[in-house]
Amino acid sequence: MDQGALEPIETASRDAVRAVQLTRLRDSLARAAAAVPHTRDAFAAAGVAPDILRSLDDLARLPFTTKDDLRRNYPWGMFAVPMPEIIRIHASSGTTGTPTVVGYTRDDIATWAALVARSLRAAGARPGDRVHVAYGYGLFTGGLGLHYGAEALGCAAIPVSVGQTERQVQLIRDFRPDIIAATPSYLLAIADECERQGLDGPNCSLRIAVCGAEPWTEGMRAEIEARLGLAALDIYGLSEVMGPGIAQECAETRDGLTLWEDHFLPEIIDPVTGTVLPEGEEGELVLTTLTRQAMPLVRYRTRDLTRLLPPGPARPGMRRMARIKGRSDDMLIIRGVNLFPSQVEAALAEEPRLAPHYLLEVTRPARLDELEVVVELRPELAGRLTEAEGAALERDTAAMLRGRIGLAAALRVVPPGTIERSQGKARRVFDRRPKA
User: Fold this and answer.
1) Separation of alpha carbons 69 and 418, rounded Å
2) Which end of the chain has less neighbouring CB within 10 Å, N or C?
3) pLDDT tens digits for range 16-30
């Protein structure tokens, strides 16, 4: 098959995709219930069995799987195949508890590579392109996922990983890659370094950035595209389900991320009640794997907040999802107001004198929570604002921010380069409130 051509399922009708989903879902549920003790016990506790599935709507009758379930079954308890069939193991960092472990069979790795290749092609990559991979390698799925996908598409993968930003830019200058894969926040750090080295971003070789692993806004997209002279497109994935390549924004439409529904069945639920929400309503994304051999997951709660959209013209049989707004477990509750960092980012992007580098600090010095937003000034304005102009900028931006998020916040504008640059997922929030 031509590596640059669409797969038949990508042009199939909605009815054809749903038929594939139903067949694969029945097989996956039967395999999980037969081989994974946790799934078998969860089905029994809920009083259901895989054979209740008469239509895709019956999926809502099955129990959820959560990250805590994966942690309780650490390390191999969620695997559905014998250990000799596992050829790859990835895991989360485990910085907030027991790591979540993910296993892959040889077929799983081939499927993953094919889906990332499909995603790269949808973003505009073609065989023969050079792909600069600036995601982390190792137990994190980002680097190796993009690497194998690039090779499967017929591209040359450049496995740079994260860090050593000065060297990253030197390699971009010397190797002249066509595609770069990185977190949006790290792309901004690369853009800073390009300017420091005198490399004119809009005139460098890069034409596409494939961005994922953290929420980002249209304002940040515009910033990346203007400074690097490329098209920045969204890729979605999470390690527990597979890694990157679950959904991808298509270059020709840029109208949301197409979910590869022949491999993943999505639902949107109310994050509090667990009730399935109608298409178009915002809630928590739940994914059921349809083709995973080593670790089939039933109704996995991703904690990512988005909404499902009907199929678009780019892939007529597959639904789309909106860009991730944030994670339900990243939501801050400050004086009764629900707040996501992406809301602050979107508001700050409206002030052209501010750079897209910011952080939020939440404290409770007395009885009430306090929010401080620290944001950098644009480099070209460094040293050019008078004290009165700087004070006015802080005052006006704080007022604008309050109008956008419904919460008063202290706002502090700092010189360029003050906020530490991320080499992976950006840390935006520092919650210093006393623990209960």
Assistant:
1) 40
2) C
3) 999 999 999 999 999
